[in-house]
TrEMBL record:
Positions with biased composition (Basic and acidic residues): 66-79
Domain STAT transcription factor all-alpha residues, every copy: 89-148
Protein name in the entry: STAT6 protein
GO terms (BP aspect): signal transduction
Keywords noted in UniProt: SH2 domain
The species this protein was found in: Zapornia atra (Henderson crake)
InterPro entries found in the cross-reference section: STAT (IPR001217), STAT_TF_alpha (IPR013800), STAT_TF_CC (IPR015988)
Annotated spans, Disordered: 60-79
GO molecular function, one term: DNA-binding transcription factor activity
Length: 175
């Protein structure tokens, strides 16, 4: 982990030096960076769904503390409290991924508007559609896990989670 942190710091320093020298990077670099961030977020979300399923299937087995993620410290917590915390973390990540998709949709709409004035416009909607479909797929997996664990979540947490789920799906559909 220390090696990864050192390499990350070196790469961030190099990126800052390039940005300082050139003042900006090509648009394709930023788009690729955004795609990688979204892919990583989606993979983390899928991993959370699998963790939730594993915890539901075997509630006696406590998850090992994830040293890379300081937000999820499970040491000292009873297994019953791990599931709601893990689900809440997964819902936060789902909402963050939704925001990334909505941001990309907004950028696409703006580029389409600018195309009316002669700006270059890439009309290919396939990457945007793939993002939406993969996010909705993970959404349904997570929703299924939450509904399966509804008895363990309590009467006050479940309605809040369902409301957040409905907001995610409705905002994706409406925009």
């Amino acid at each position: 982990l220390r090696l990864v942190a050192i390499l990350k710091a070196i790469l961030e320093g190099e990126k800052a030096a390039v940005l300082k020298r050139d003042r900006h990077l090509p648009l394709s670099f930023h788009r690729r960076q955004e795609e990688l961030k979204f892919s990583l977020g989606l993979q983390r979300l899928q991993h959370r769904v699998h963790e939730i399923q594993a915890l539901r299937d075997n509630p006696a087995a406590s998850l090992q503390p994830d040293l890379r993620d300081p937000q999820l410290k499970t040491e000292g917590k009873p297994p019953e409290s791990e599931l709601p915390a893990l689900i809440l973390e997964a819902v936060k990540e789902l909402e963050a991924a939704k925001q990334q998709v909505l941001k990309r949709i907004q950028i696409w709409k703006r580029q389409q508007q600018l195309a009316g004035n002669g700006a270059v416009f890439e009309e290919n909607l396939a990457p945007l559609q793939k993002r939406c479909e993969s996010l909705v797929e993970v959404y349904f997996q997570l929703h299924q896990q939450v509904m399966g664990a509804s008895a363990k979540l309590g009467a006050e947490l479940l309605p809040r989670l369902l409301e957040r789920f409905n907001e995610v799906l409705s905002s994706l559909v409406k925009r």
